[in-house]
Amino acid sequence: MKLTLKKIILFAVLLLIFSGLKAQVILRGDDLKDTARLKRAQVVAAIIQPPDTVLIVRHKPIVIMPPFVFTSKRQQDKYNKLVYNVRKVWPYAQIIKRVYRQLEDSLKKLPDEEQKKAFIKGQEKILRAQFEDQLIRLTITQGRILIKLVDRETGSTTYEVLKELKGSFNAFLFQGIARLFGSNLKSEYDALDEDRMIEDIIVKIENGML
Prior knowledge:
By secondary structure, the chain is mainly alpha-helical. It has two domains: 5-56, no CATH class; 73-206, no CATH class. It contains eight helices and two strands, in the order H-H-E-E-H-H-H-H-H-H. It has helices at residues 5-21, 35-40, 73-108, 113-135, 140-154, 158-166, 168-180, 196-206; strands at residues 45-49, 52-56. A two-stranded antiparallel sheet has the order 1-2. Helix 3 crosses helix 5. The longest helix has 36 residues, at 73-108.
């Protein structure tokens, strides 16, 4: 089926109408005595215009993305492999984002550098115990994607994150090791060009399309 702009707009409107109507059951009178229904109920704002009641429901944006058009099976296979790799490392990128923000908040509350270093060392030990075995199983390609996603999720390159938390020497050391394996901890995420396909995959993952 050819996907035209008109069809995309129509599909989006239908989704909005359906998602807005499917849960709009108003409880009145004896219905309010049904505790089972009350537990499933959702409180929403409404505008009463007798004889009608207009519900005001907020919905997360619905993303409509056209599929990639592949010119060859080889290109499609490459995309499918990228989907697999992105889905493999995406959870780790989310964990890094959460931990990085928590570390930033915690470090702001510590008075001196010695306490900050001790805190970082303790957190590193915990994270190693939880994730080291999983992370060392990542392929070089998956590692490169994860490096990119760190920049996407934190706003800082992996090198900058390491430099902030572990110091310039450690950042330099890990960068040297990464370069031996053809990776670059200073890699920045480019959603509009170089990493456009990765961005497409992530948006689809976030919206339950993959």
